[in-house]
Design goal:
The chain is built from 14 helices and 8 strands. By secondary structure, it is of the alpha/beta class. It has an 8-stranded parallel beta sheet with strand order 1-2-3-4-5-6-7-8. Bound molecules: 5-methoxybenzene-1,3-dicarboxylic acid (1WB) and manganese (II) ion.
Length: about 350
């Protein structure tokens, strides 16, 4: 730890947990027939084949644990807060009724642990996009009654994305509640999946970023943010590289609009990205990419994250402690932006 480690309030914003009931339901999904790309990893974590790595075997206990090893890991590394979210694929591989019930149960457990450790945990609520009207009700309960800090969704649901009007009750609820939706990855949807089935490309190596960046772009170019101008979306892994593409996206989207293949928009994709999105550094520890992100999006739109327990804490802390930014900028990255975007009380 660096000399000033005690002066930073480190709020980590993409930190995964699970509950035994969701883990059991995912084990059932792993054992049922199916071919979706998520199953490669779901089988390894929830129905572990013999001979898988020790690191993989350790994941599930570390996801379920909230108050033991997790708090020790936070203490050891000077991390004040985990903003917790139900780990991918959340409830999105279940039928609508099971998903709705398990999201509410996970939210209750999350609220209980936040209440017990209000200075150590905050939480992003889950909902079941399979049933958008019930999801909107659960979203209201999660913010107004459970006092959670925003929402998590694991990208597509049954291969559909948030540009689909059937999901608008969810986007409307998030906007009305002034609560940010964190679009966390899951494996690419069925139509995208084929070239991701080998070389370990299904998940965090490459598939996750392609899936979420595609989701974000679909939302921007379909006009979602003209309909919901105050909707806030967070994406991890250094913005899934969307901001690297903004110039070309603006240029080619204008062409697509002019030839009638894309709807006319009030703003350009880059204007939506700067207005409606924030990004986190989860699992992406490159100072070059951080520098580019701050220059492209502004210091107020970048938040620190670890991606616990999928990535280790110490290097994520070392990465941000040593980032080439001013002391005031480091405080924004570590906690100021998270406090603002996720309504986390300051101390
Ligand atoms: C991995 C990363 C796997 C994440 C996950 O399974 C999630 C991985 C649900 O590194 O293989 C994540 O949340 O970033
Ligand atoms: Mn993650």
């Amino acid at each position: 730890m660096t000399a000033d480690s005690k002066t930073h309030r480190r709020i980590a914003t993409e930190e995964a947990f699970s509950i035994p009931e969701v883990a059991a339901a995912l084990r059932d999904v792993a054992r049922a027939p199916g071919n979706s790309l998520d199953l490669i990893l779901v089988k390894r974590i929830y129905d572990a084949p013999k001979g898988d790595t020790a690191q993989m075997a350790a994941l599930l206990p570390r996801l379920i644990d909230l108050e033991d090893e997790r708090l020790r890991d936070m203490d050891k590394n000077g991390v004040a807060v985990h903003l917790l979210s139900l780990t991918a694929p959340g409830v999105q591989m279940f039928d609508a009724d099971t998903a709705t019930e398990l999201a509410a149960l996970a939210n209750d457990r999350l609220a209980a642990v936040v209440k017990k450790h209000p200075t150590r945990f905050a939480g992003l609520a889950s909902f079941a996009p399979q049933s958008p009207k019930r999801a909107a009700k659960e979203m209201e309960r999660a913010i107004k009654t459970l006092k959670l800090n925003g929402f998590v969704v694991n990208s597509h649901t049954n291969n559909d994305y948030f540009d689909d009007p059937k999901f608008f009750p969810i986007l409307e609820a998030a906007e009305a509640l002034d609560a940010c939706i964190y679009i966390h990855p899951r494996a690419p949807s069925d139509g995208l999946a084929a070239p991701f089935r080998d070389y370990g490309l299904d998940s965090a190596q490459w598939g996750y970023g392609i899936e979420v960046s595609t989701h974000a772009v679909r939302m921007m170019v379909s006009g979602v943010f003209d309909r919901f101008p105050k909707l806030k979306i967070c994406i991890g892994h250094m913005g899934e590289a969307v901001h690297f593409w903004l110039w070309r996206l603006d240029y080619m989207n204008k062409n697509a609009q002019n030839r009638g293949s894309a709807p006319k928009l009030k703003l350009t994709p880059s204007e939506y990205f700067k207005r409606n999105f924030v990004i986190t550094t989860s699992g992406q520890e490159s100072h070059l990419a951080l520098d580019f992100s701050i220059k492209a999006l502004g210091i107020d739109n970048v938040l620190w994250a670890i991606d616990y327990p999928y990535q280790p804490t110490a290097p994520a802390v070392a990465f941000m402690d040593s980032a080439p930014v001013s002391p005031a900028e480091r405080e924004k990255l570590y906690h100021g932006n998270a406090e603002r975007v996720f309504h986390i009380p300051t101390v």
